[in-house]
Amino acid sequence: MFKYLFYLSFLIITVYAEDSFIFDFNKSSGDWFAVNDNVMGGLSNGNSSLSDQKLIFSGNLSLENNGGFSSIRSPKVSQDLTSCKGIQLRVKGDGRNYLFNIYTNIRIPAGSYRGSFTTTAGKWTEIFIPFTEFQATSFGRAIPFFPSLNRKQIKRLGFMVSDKKPGPFRLEIEWIKAIKKTSQSVNIPLNLLQKLESNEDTSFFYNLVEKTKYKELLASRNNFTVIVPHDSIFEQMPKRDRELIKNNELVTIFFLSIHLSPNTQITDSSNKLNAFLKENFDVENASKKIISSNGVLYVVKKSTPSFKEFLIKGSLEELVEFTIEKGAPIYNMGYVSICTKIYYLSLNIIYEQHSDKLSKQLKSDLWKSINSETKDRPQYKRAWDLRALLDRVYSESKVISQNDSKVNK
Q1: Residue 390: what pLDDT?
Q2: 43 domain residue, yes or no
Q3: Distance between CA atoms of 256 and 261, rounded to whole angstroms?
Q4: pTM to 2 decimals?
Q5: How far apart are CA 271 and CA 269, in angstroms?
Q6: Which of 277, 282, 359, 362 is nearest to 314 (CA)?
Q7: What is the DSSP secondary-structure string of 279-312?
Q8: Could you give the CA distance from residue 173 to residue 124 in angstroms, rounded to a whole number?
Q9: Residue at which a domain ends, from 149, 168, 187
Protein backbone atom coordinates (compact mmCIF):
# COMPACT_ATOMS: atom_id res chain seq x y z
CA MET A 1 0.00 0.00 0.00
CA PHE A 2 2.78 2.40 0.92
CA LYS A 3 4.36 2.48 -2.53
CA TYR A 4 1.15 3.92 -4.01
CA LEU A 5 1.42 6.94 -1.75
CA PHE A 6 4.33 8.15 -3.87
CA TYR A 7 1.85 9.01 -6.59
CA LEU A 8 0.09 11.52 -4.40
CA SER A 9 1.10 15.18 -4.38
CA PHE A 10 1.69 14.98 -0.64
CA LEU A 11 2.34 12.23 1.84
CA ILE A 12 -0.11 12.63 4.75
CA ILE A 13 1.45 11.76 8.09
CA THR A 14 -0.54 11.86 11.30
CA VAL A 15 1.59 13.28 14.09
CA TYR A 16 0.21 12.76 17.55
CA ALA A 17 0.95 16.14 19.05
CA GLU A 18 -0.42 19.03 21.02
CA ASP A 19 0.49 22.34 19.47
CA SER A 20 2.86 24.28 21.69
CA PHE A 21 3.72 27.79 20.52
CA ILE A 22 7.36 28.69 20.97
CA PHE A 23 6.88 32.04 19.23
CA ASP A 24 3.50 33.50 18.30
CA PHE A 25 4.07 36.90 16.75
CA ASN A 26 0.43 37.83 17.23
CA LYS A 27 1.30 38.15 20.90
CA SER A 28 4.95 39.14 21.18
CA SER A 29 8.07 39.57 19.10
CA GLY A 30 10.96 38.82 21.41
CA ASP A 31 14.36 40.34 20.84
CA TRP A 32 15.53 38.68 17.63
CA PHE A 33 18.96 39.80 16.40
CA ALA A 34 20.96 39.47 13.17
CA VAL A 35 24.22 37.62 12.49
CA ASN A 36 25.45 38.22 8.94
CA ASP A 37 28.55 37.30 6.96
CA ASN A 38 30.18 40.63 7.85
CA VAL A 39 31.60 38.76 10.85
CA MET A 40 33.99 37.22 8.31
CA GLY A 41 34.29 40.15 5.89
CA GLY A 42 31.18 39.56 3.76
CA LEU A 43 28.80 42.24 2.52
CA SER A 44 25.37 40.65 3.04
CA ASN A 45 22.85 42.50 5.14
CA GLY A 46 19.73 41.19 6.80
CA ASN A 47 17.65 41.90 9.87
CA SER A 48 14.39 41.18 11.62
CA SER A 49 11.40 43.43 12.09
CA LEU A 50 7.73 43.20 13.09
CA SER A 51 4.96 44.04 10.64
CA ASP A 52 1.26 43.29 10.98
CA GLN A 53 2.00 40.82 13.82
CA LYS A 54 4.48 38.86 11.67
CA LEU A 55 8.23 38.48 12.09
CA ILE A 56 9.97 39.65 8.91
CA PHE A 57 13.44 38.35 8.00
CA SER A 58 14.65 40.39 5.04
CA GLY A 59 17.73 41.89 3.46
CA ASN A 60 20.18 41.39 0.61
CA LEU A 61 22.48 38.42 0.08
CA SER A 62 25.96 39.12 -1.35
CA LEU A 63 28.61 36.62 -2.42
CA GLU A 64 31.39 39.22 -2.45
CA ASN A 65 34.41 38.96 -0.16
CA ASN A 66 33.76 35.21 0.28
CA GLY A 67 30.43 35.98 1.97
CA GLY A 68 27.05 34.44 1.32
CA PHE A 69 24.85 34.19 4.38
CA SER A 70 22.46 36.23 6.49
CA SER A 71 20.69 35.04 9.62
CA ILE A 72 18.59 36.02 12.59
CA ARG A 73 18.44 34.42 16.04
CA SER A 74 15.78 34.38 18.69
CA PRO A 75 16.03 35.41 22.31
CA LYS A 76 16.65 32.53 24.70
CA VAL A 77 13.91 29.93 24.98
CA SER A 78 13.30 27.87 28.09
CA GLN A 79 11.09 25.01 26.93
CA ASP A 80 11.74 21.32 27.39
CA LEU A 81 10.87 19.81 24.00
CA THR A 82 11.82 16.23 24.92
CA SER A 83 8.34 14.90 24.19
CA CYS A 84 8.01 16.80 20.90
CA LYS A 85 8.28 15.30 17.43
CA GLY A 86 9.46 18.36 15.53
CA ILE A 87 9.04 22.01 14.61
CA GLN A 88 6.19 23.43 12.57
CA LEU A 89 6.42 26.85 10.89
CA ARG A 90 3.85 29.05 9.20
CA VAL A 91 5.77 31.13 6.67
CA LYS A 92 5.43 33.11 3.47
CA GLY A 93 8.58 33.34 1.39
CA ASP A 94 9.93 34.37 -1.98
CA GLY A 95 10.63 30.99 -3.54
CA ARG A 96 14.09 30.71 -1.99
CA ASN A 97 15.47 27.95 0.20
CA TYR A 98 15.92 28.78 3.89
CA LEU A 99 17.50 27.09 6.91
CA PHE A 100 15.96 26.72 10.34
CA ASN A 101 18.64 26.61 13.05
CA ILE A 102 18.46 25.24 16.58
CA TYR A 103 21.14 26.26 19.08
CA THR A 104 21.69 24.14 22.21
CA ASN A 105 23.89 24.18 25.28
CA ILE A 106 26.49 22.26 23.27
CA ARG A 107 28.86 24.84 21.83
CA ILE A 108 29.54 24.30 18.11
CA PRO A 109 31.99 26.76 16.46
CA ALA A 110 29.95 28.82 13.96
CA GLY A 111 27.39 26.07 14.11
CA SER A 112 23.94 24.81 15.02
CA TYR A 113 21.57 21.93 14.39
CA ARG A 114 20.09 22.68 11.00
CA GLY A 115 17.05 21.77 8.95
CA SER A 116 16.08 23.28 5.59
CA PHE A 117 12.85 24.17 3.85
CA THR A 118 11.70 25.55 0.52
CA THR A 119 9.23 28.42 0.22
CA THR A 120 6.64 29.18 -2.44
CA ALA A 121 6.76 32.80 -3.58
CA GLY A 122 3.93 34.87 -2.12
CA LYS A 123 2.10 31.92 -0.55
CA TRP A 124 1.56 31.07 3.11
CA THR A 125 2.58 27.48 3.89
CA GLU A 126 2.89 25.34 7.00
CA ILE A 127 6.12 23.36 7.14
CA PHE A 128 6.91 20.50 9.51
CA ILE A 129 10.56 19.58 10.20
CA PRO A 130 11.02 16.44 12.35
CA PHE A 131 13.72 16.73 15.02
CA THR A 132 15.31 13.59 13.58
CA GLU A 133 16.18 15.53 10.41
CA PHE A 134 18.23 18.24 12.13
CA GLN A 135 21.94 17.87 11.35
CA ALA A 136 24.79 19.31 13.43
CA THR A 137 26.82 21.72 11.28
CA SER A 138 29.88 23.91 11.74
CA PHE A 139 30.86 26.65 9.25
CA GLY A 140 28.14 25.31 6.97
CA ARG A 141 29.49 21.75 6.98
CA ALA A 142 27.81 18.67 8.43
CA ILE A 143 29.66 17.20 11.42
CA PRO A 144 29.85 13.39 11.11
CA PHE A 145 29.30 11.27 14.25
CA PHE A 146 28.19 14.28 16.32
CA PRO A 147 25.59 13.74 19.10
CA SER A 148 22.01 14.04 17.88
CA LEU A 149 19.89 17.00 18.92
CA ASN A 150 19.12 17.05 22.64
CA ARG A 151 15.59 18.46 22.83
CA LYS A 152 16.00 19.29 26.49
CA GLN A 153 18.92 21.67 25.87
CA ILE A 154 17.46 24.00 23.22
CA LYS A 155 18.31 27.62 24.00
CA ARG A 156 17.77 29.58 20.75
CA LEU A 157 16.15 29.24 17.34
CA GLY A 158 16.97 31.01 14.10
CA PHE A 159 16.54 31.44 10.36
CA MET A 160 19.25 31.67 7.71
CA VAL A 161 19.53 32.19 3.98
CA SER A 162 22.68 30.89 2.25
CA ASP A 163 21.49 29.53 -1.11
CA LYS A 164 24.26 31.17 -3.18
CA LYS A 165 21.77 33.41 -4.98
CA PRO A 166 22.81 37.06 -4.58
CA GLY A 167 20.00 39.56 -4.27
CA PRO A 168 17.10 40.57 -2.03
CA PHE A 169 15.27 38.06 0.15
CA ARG A 170 12.18 38.19 2.36
CA LEU A 171 10.64 35.63 4.70
CA GLU A 172 7.54 36.27 6.83
CA ILE A 173 6.93 34.10 9.89
CA GLU A 174 3.53 34.00 11.61
CA TRP A 175 4.39 31.44 14.27
CA ILE A 176 6.78 28.69 15.35
CA LYS A 177 5.33 25.62 17.10
CA ALA A 178 6.68 22.50 18.74
CA ILE A 179 4.53 19.49 17.85
CA LYS A 180 3.83 17.15 20.76
CA LYS A 181 0.79 14.87 20.77
CA THR A 182 -2.42 15.39 18.82
CA SER A 183 -4.48 13.90 16.04
CA GLN A 184 -3.67 16.77 13.69
CA SER A 185 -2.57 15.71 10.20
CA VAL A 186 0.55 17.39 8.86
CA ASN A 187 1.10 17.66 5.12
CA ILE A 188 4.68 16.84 4.25
CA PRO A 189 5.59 17.46 0.58
CA LEU A 190 7.41 14.58 -1.11
CA ASN A 191 11.18 14.93 -1.39
CA LEU A 192 13.22 14.76 -4.59
CA LEU A 193 13.88 11.04 -4.33
CA GLN A 194 10.18 10.25 -3.85
CA LYS A 195 9.18 12.52 -6.74
CA LEU A 196 11.83 10.93 -8.96
CA GLU A 197 10.72 7.40 -8.06
CA SER A 198 7.08 8.19 -8.81
CA ASN A 199 7.84 9.71 -12.22
CA GLU A 200 7.27 6.99 -14.84
CA ASP A 201 9.50 8.29 -17.66
CA THR A 202 12.78 8.78 -15.71
CA SER A 203 13.37 5.25 -14.39
CA PHE A 204 16.89 4.92 -15.86
CA PHE A 205 18.08 8.06 -14.06
CA TYR A 206 16.35 6.98 -10.85
CA ASN A 207 18.13 3.62 -10.95
CA LEU A 208 21.47 5.43 -11.21
CA VAL A 209 20.62 7.55 -8.17
CA GLU A 210 19.23 4.60 -6.23
CA LYS A 211 22.53 2.69 -6.19
CA THR A 212 24.68 5.60 -5.01
CA LYS A 213 24.87 7.87 -1.94
CA TYR A 214 22.95 10.45 -3.99
CA LYS A 215 19.89 8.42 -2.94
CA GLU A 216 20.39 9.63 0.64
CA LEU A 217 21.12 13.19 -0.48
CA LEU A 218 17.93 13.54 -2.51
CA ALA A 219 15.91 12.21 0.41
CA SER A 220 17.55 14.62 2.86
CA ARG A 221 16.74 18.23 3.70
CA ASN A 222 19.54 19.43 1.42
CA ASN A 223 18.22 21.41 -1.55
CA PHE A 224 19.04 20.48 -5.14
CA THR A 225 18.08 21.36 -8.68
CA VAL A 226 18.08 18.15 -10.72
CA ILE A 227 18.18 17.95 -14.51
CA VAL A 228 16.70 14.55 -15.33
CA PRO A 229 17.11 13.13 -18.85
CA HIS A 230 13.95 11.45 -20.13
CA ASP A 231 14.23 7.66 -20.57
CA SER A 232 14.09 8.12 -24.34
CA ILE A 233 17.45 9.94 -24.18
CA PHE A 234 19.16 6.87 -22.74
CA GLU A 235 17.46 4.64 -25.31
CA GLN A 236 18.98 6.77 -28.10
CA MET A 237 22.43 6.77 -26.48
CA PRO A 238 25.11 4.42 -27.90
CA LYS A 239 24.99 1.16 -25.94
CA ARG A 240 28.66 1.46 -24.92
CA ASP A 241 28.07 4.88 -23.33
CA ARG A 242 24.88 3.75 -21.63
CA GLU A 243 26.56 0.68 -20.13
CA LEU A 244 29.54 2.74 -18.95
CA ILE A 245 27.28 5.19 -17.13
CA LYS A 246 25.26 2.33 -15.66
CA ASN A 247 28.07 -0.02 -14.56
CA ASN A 248 31.13 2.08 -13.78
CA GLU A 249 30.69 3.60 -10.30
CA LEU A 250 33.05 6.54 -10.86
CA VAL A 251 31.40 7.43 -14.17
CA THR A 252 27.95 7.08 -12.58
CA ILE A 253 28.91 9.52 -9.80
CA PHE A 254 30.43 12.04 -12.20
CA PHE A 255 27.45 11.77 -14.56
CA LEU A 256 25.04 12.43 -11.70
CA SER A 257 27.16 15.34 -10.44
CA ILE A 258 26.75 17.02 -13.83
CA HIS A 259 22.97 16.75 -13.51
CA LEU A 260 22.58 17.70 -9.83
CA SER A 261 23.24 21.24 -8.66
CA PRO A 262 23.35 21.73 -4.87
CA ASN A 263 21.20 24.62 -3.59
CA THR A 264 20.60 26.39 -6.87
CA GLN A 265 20.13 26.20 -10.62
CA ILE A 266 23.01 25.89 -13.08
CA THR A 267 24.72 29.24 -12.84
CA ASP A 268 25.09 31.86 -15.52
CA SER A 269 28.80 32.15 -14.77
CA SER A 270 31.46 32.77 -17.38
CA ASN A 271 32.61 29.15 -16.94
CA LYS A 272 32.16 27.60 -20.38
CA LEU A 273 31.26 24.21 -18.92
CA ASN A 274 28.35 25.70 -16.97
CA ALA A 275 27.27 27.73 -20.01
CA PHE A 276 27.40 24.61 -22.20
CA LEU A 277 25.27 22.63 -19.75
CA LYS A 278 22.73 25.42 -19.45
CA GLU A 279 22.37 25.60 -23.21
CA ASN A 280 22.40 21.82 -23.71
CA PHE A 281 19.88 20.97 -21.02
CA ASP A 282 17.45 23.63 -22.31
CA VAL A 283 15.66 23.85 -18.96
CA GLU A 284 13.27 26.55 -20.14
CA ASN A 285 11.73 24.01 -22.53
CA ALA A 286 11.73 21.10 -20.09
CA SER A 287 8.87 18.65 -20.61
CA LYS A 288 8.18 18.67 -16.86
CA LYS A 289 9.00 20.86 -13.88
CA ILE A 290 8.38 18.97 -10.64
CA ILE A 291 8.50 20.82 -7.30
CA SER A 292 9.43 18.88 -4.17
CA SER A 293 10.08 19.65 -0.51
CA ASN A 294 13.83 20.02 -1.10
CA GLY A 295 14.19 21.32 -4.63
CA VAL A 296 13.01 20.95 -8.19
CA LEU A 297 13.28 18.35 -10.98
CA TYR A 298 13.41 19.35 -14.65
CA VAL A 299 12.70 16.47 -17.05
CA VAL A 300 14.45 17.20 -20.34
CA LYS A 301 14.24 15.45 -23.70
CA LYS A 302 17.25 17.11 -25.26
CA SER A 303 20.25 14.81 -25.69
CA THR A 304 22.66 14.55 -22.79
CA PRO A 305 26.19 15.51 -23.86
CA SER A 306 28.84 12.80 -23.98
CA PHE A 307 31.80 13.16 -21.62
CA LYS A 308 34.10 13.92 -24.52
CA GLU A 309 31.71 16.52 -25.88
CA PHE A 310 31.40 18.07 -22.44
CA LEU A 311 35.07 18.14 -21.48
CA ILE A 312 36.38 19.80 -24.62
CA LYS A 313 34.11 22.79 -24.05
CA GLY A 314 36.17 24.27 -21.24
CA SER A 315 39.76 25.05 -20.37
CA LEU A 316 41.75 23.14 -17.76
CA GLU A 317 41.14 25.99 -15.35
CA GLU A 318 37.37 25.79 -15.92
CA LEU A 319 37.35 22.02 -15.45
CA VAL A 320 38.95 22.44 -12.01
CA GLU A 321 36.45 25.19 -11.09
CA PHE A 322 33.56 23.00 -12.19
CA THR A 323 34.88 19.99 -10.24
CA ILE A 324 35.22 21.95 -7.00
CA GLU A 325 31.83 23.59 -7.52
CA LYS A 326 30.26 20.12 -7.69
CA GLY A 327 32.32 18.38 -5.03
CA ALA A 328 32.79 20.92 -2.23
CA PRO A 329 29.07 21.43 -1.36
CA ILE A 330 28.60 17.64 -1.23
CA TYR A 331 31.56 17.37 1.17
CA ASN A 332 30.04 20.10 3.33
CA MET A 333 26.78 18.16 3.46
CA GLY A 334 28.70 15.26 5.01
CA TYR A 335 28.87 12.96 1.95
CA VAL A 336 32.65 12.76 1.74
CA SER A 337 32.79 9.60 -0.38
CA ILE A 338 30.84 11.23 -3.25
CA CYS A 339 33.09 14.28 -3.17
CA THR A 340 36.19 12.05 -3.20
CA LYS A 341 34.97 10.15 -6.27
CA ILE A 342 34.18 13.39 -8.15
CA TYR A 343 37.66 14.75 -7.40
CA TYR A 344 39.35 11.44 -8.24
CA LEU A 345 37.72 10.99 -11.65
CA SER A 346 38.35 14.62 -12.56
CA LEU A 347 42.06 14.25 -11.75
CA ASN A 348 42.14 11.11 -13.90
CA ILE A 349 40.67 13.12 -16.78
CA ILE A 350 43.17 15.92 -16.19
CA TYR A 351 46.09 13.46 -16.20
CA GLU A 352 44.92 11.75 -19.40
CA GLN A 353 43.94 14.85 -21.38
CA HIS A 354 45.93 17.78 -19.97
CA SER A 355 49.16 16.38 -18.49
CA ASP A 356 51.21 18.01 -21.27
CA LYS A 357 50.23 21.39 -19.77
CA LEU A 358 51.47 20.56 -16.27
CA SER A 359 54.90 20.78 -14.68
CA LYS A 360 56.93 17.58 -14.45
CA GLN A 361 56.61 17.52 -10.65
CA LEU A 362 52.83 18.01 -10.63
CA LYS A 363 52.39 15.41 -13.35
CA SER A 364 54.40 12.93 -11.24
CA ASP A 365 52.40 13.74 -8.09
CA LEU A 366 49.15 13.29 -10.00
CA TRP A 367 50.22 9.88 -11.24
CA LYS A 368 51.23 8.77 -7.74
CA SER A 369 47.96 9.93 -6.20
CA ILE A 370 45.79 8.33 -8.88
CA ASN A 371 47.58 4.99 -8.59
CA SER A 372 48.27 4.89 -4.87
CA GLU A 373 46.67 2.41 -2.47
CA THR A 374 44.47 4.40 -0.07
CA LYS A 375 42.34 1.78 1.71
CA ASP A 376 43.77 2.69 5.12
CA ARG A 377 43.50 6.45 4.65
CA PRO A 378 40.34 8.10 6.05
CA GLN A 379 37.98 9.34 3.33
CA TYR A 380 38.03 12.94 4.52
CA LYS A 381 41.85 13.04 4.36
CA ARG A 382 41.79 11.47 0.90
CA ALA A 383 39.31 14.13 -0.22
CA TRP A 384 41.62 16.89 1.03
CA ASP A 385 44.64 15.23 -0.67
CA LEU A 386 42.80 15.32 -3.99
CA ARG A 387 41.54 18.86 -3.38
CA ALA A 388 45.14 20.00 -2.77
CA LEU A 389 46.11 18.53 -6.15
CA LEU A 390 43.19 20.27 -7.84
CA ASP A 391 44.32 23.56 -6.29
CA ARG A 392 47.84 23.02 -7.63
CA VAL A 393 46.47 22.23 -11.10
CA TYR A 394 44.37 25.37 -10.92
CA SER A 395 47.36 27.53 -9.94
CA GLU A 396 49.47 26.21 -12.81
CA SER A 397 46.60 26.56 -15.29
CA LYS A 398 46.15 30.21 -14.23
CA VAL A 399 49.81 30.89 -15.01
CA ILE A 400 49.41 29.19 -18.40
CA SER A 401 46.34 31.33 -19.16
CA GLN A 402 48.15 34.52 -18.19
CA ASN A 403 51.16 33.62 -20.35
CA ASP A 404 48.93 32.77 -23.32
CA SER A 405 47.18 36.10 -22.85
CA LYS A 406 50.50 37.98 -22.95
CA VAL A 407 51.56 36.12 -26.11
CA ASN A 408 48.28 36.93 -27.86
CA LYS A 409 48.72 40.63 -27.04
Answers
A1: 94
A2: yes
A3: 9
A4: 0.61
A5: 5
A6: 277
A7: HHHTGGG-SEEEEETTEEEEEE-SPPPPHHHHHT
A8: 9
A9: 187
